[in-house]
Design a protein that fits this description.
The chain is an alpha/beta fold. 26% of the residues lie in helices and 26% in strands. Strand 3 and strand 4 form a beta hairpin. Helix 1 packs antiparallel against helix 2 and helix 3 packs parallel to helix 4.
Amino acid sequence: MPTIKTSVTEVILPVTVTDDKGRFIDNLTQGEFRILDEGRVQKIKFFSHDPRQPTVIGFLVDMSNNSTIHWSNYKDAVKEMVWGLLPNDKNYTGYLISFSNTAELLVNTTWDPDKLTTQVDRMKPGGGAALFDAIKRACTDRDLIPGEPYQPRRIIVVFGNGHDSASEYTIDQAIELAQQRLVTIYGVSTAAYGMEDPDRDQLEKLATSTGGRVWYPLDNPYSEVSGFLSQPSDEGNYALHVGTGGYASAINSSIYKAVGALEGEITTQYILRYSPEFDAVSANKEKHRIKVEIPSLPPSSYHVSTRPDYYPNRIGQ
């Protein structure tokens, strides 16, 4: 069928590649990647694997009642991530949104990390959770940096458990808007170990639909502790008791490992860009499917994380 060039200038794909054990594969070259847009192979116009890639990062922090238990730990983790990802360099900017009963832009886009961390110190949990409205605000209600979404690219990090009880926006509307604006959503779950987490799927959906993923630092902070058996609901099986120094140390260690892993992924991804070309049938589709392959590797030996689709006529607004 004849080739049709879309009006979209470029599609940007942050790509993470891991092996079958979850370890990063970081030695690939441009020629080893293949991009399929609606099944049609695309020509890669831009390739980068620089360790420090210009980014604009939204820190979205859950201030609902769900964050009360471990807020002091997560507060320090948010601050550490801000300092790690905003190194007082104007190529790396960020903004801070809190969400409880409403979503509030506390700090607009800036390269100064201390403006964000100072505000984080003043935050106190309480109320409902307007997560989806917070994503909407991140996509529409902040100062933009010249060059977005290509240089710098757009990232959101959600500190929360995926719960939403107060948004006007739905999860599907939030995902569609993030996809349109080429935003990648990551999550650091605040769900506590042994507690029911009914909103886990929502946080996963936000991340996987935009090319990101979620870390669960409190999923099992006891996993490396000698003496812990199996049942978190049975007090006799706790090797570390709540309120003790050992317990606090295990919680802190788990959170900081998750923060470090997320920082590593964001700063070491492969960045691919292409100008879409597709056939007449695909040209009429509102949403296009994307697949990234590495033909030089056996299919079962690697996993690619990137955005699964995009809107060709509403991109990068």
